Amino acid sequence: MGSRWAMLAGLAVLVAVSKGSAQDLGVVGESAFDQTSAWPTLSQWWRVISLQDYNTRIVVLGVAVLGASAGLVGSFTLLRKRALMGDALSHASLPGIGLAFMIATWFGRDGKSIGYLLAGATISGLLGVATILWIRNRTRLKEDAALGIVLSVFFGAGVAILSLIQQMEVGHAAGLEGFIYGKTASMRSSDVALISVASLIAISVCLLNFKELKLLCFDEGFAGSRGYPVVLLDVLLMSMVVLVTIVGLQAVGLILVIALMVIPAAAARFWTDSLWRMTAYSAVLGMVGCVSGAIISAVFPNLPSGAMIVLVCAVFFFLSMMFGTSRGVLIRTIRRRRLNRRIERQHLLRAMYERLAPSERNDSIAAKTPVAFDSLLDLRSWSRQRLHKIIRRAEDDELVRMRFPTSKSVQAEILLTRAGYIEGARLTRQHRLWELYLIAYAEVAPGLVDRDADDIEHVLAPEIVDKLEDLLEEEQMRIPVPDCPHEMSSSEAAHTTTGSERA
């Protein structure tokens, strides 16, 4: 879920790039280098990276603390499945920004004061969140529908209010469109101080209530049963979302602020399953993404800072999605391939064990009892080439031995080694125990249990097998390998009958 919305947030950058004005960290004060330069030199890169300009230091500090707090808070909203709450909140803040400017202007105040604008954005954003919760709780509509309604209605109202402001005598000079696309380059020290205080508050609240928020995200019902104030914790988390979102409007704008809440958290999810590590990785990715985007915008003046911040975060997300060590595409592909190979090997060993007659089921006799190659093809939907590969890998693990024919009229034969016989007996035992459990307790028809047992036998841990034995509570179930509880296939039955007669 979080990954999908992160990609959608990245697409929103294209809109910002096409509409955003050319901004630079050096707009206020001395620029990083001459804007007519075709390509920055190494000295110009070093000048920006080493933070030699005052405005560069101010902007980098502001976006760094914002990225860390957004990544940390975004981890909880992502796990809470409220990744788009910040998006709805940011869009809902636009009417408040416009109204705050108009009201301050009517009363003779400075309508462009950041304090008035952020206060209006906060009130409007909280009203939007309250509207979403009211629609969700009082109607049959789900939260995604409520988000869409509030997001579009409030944003439409904000655009209408901005149109009215443009008709005012002082409206054109307001520069309120900076809250839509972001105005990172024009940050002042007072703006950075506000962002830093708000970010530190959000980080401190999340860390001090880490255990409670963790329980809220993973099991809200259990948290309520243990006496935790679920509603209060939910309000606390949403308050941190409001806090980070409102101060983030100054940096990346209301269109892209959702990306800072979602992309770092979604990227961190690919690297770990631990919430502690996820929040730490998310905060670091958010910080590095913001700083890198701001530096790139400083070196290339025609690239908007907000858009570059989100694009850099999107690159981190793509790399995490592909190469993440926990849930990345590459590692999951490798794990799936290894699992499929292990399952095929286990199917081979169990099939060879079940082809043995009862009198042949000990390691010394099994090592001398060959199984015809073609007889294994009848049991699974394997091609001859596929079966050869499976047998070859099992030979490498010293589980089977393949005996090639001396003439074309004789089939190739496979023999179990001692290790292969023990493993085949273990797999068959687990398979039969699960079948017996399904018949005895799940009331599954004997003819239908084979497929279910075939799927689960590969993941049965030893402690689960012990519990199955204790649960069945029948001494006959504790024999090394129980008899098959359902009717065997015709090929298996024929082979077993032949083996019994031969014995």
UniProtKB/TrEMBL annotation:
This is Manganese transport system membrane protein MntB. GO terms for molecular function: protein dimerization activity; transition metal ion binding. The keyword Transmembrane applies. GO terms for biological process: response to zinc ion; transmembrane transport. Belongs to the ABC-3 integral membrane protein family. It is found in: Cell membrane. Keywords: Cell membrane, Membrane, Transmembrane, Transmembrane helix, Transport. It comes from Rubripirellula amarantea. Residues 488-503 have a biased composition (Polar residues).
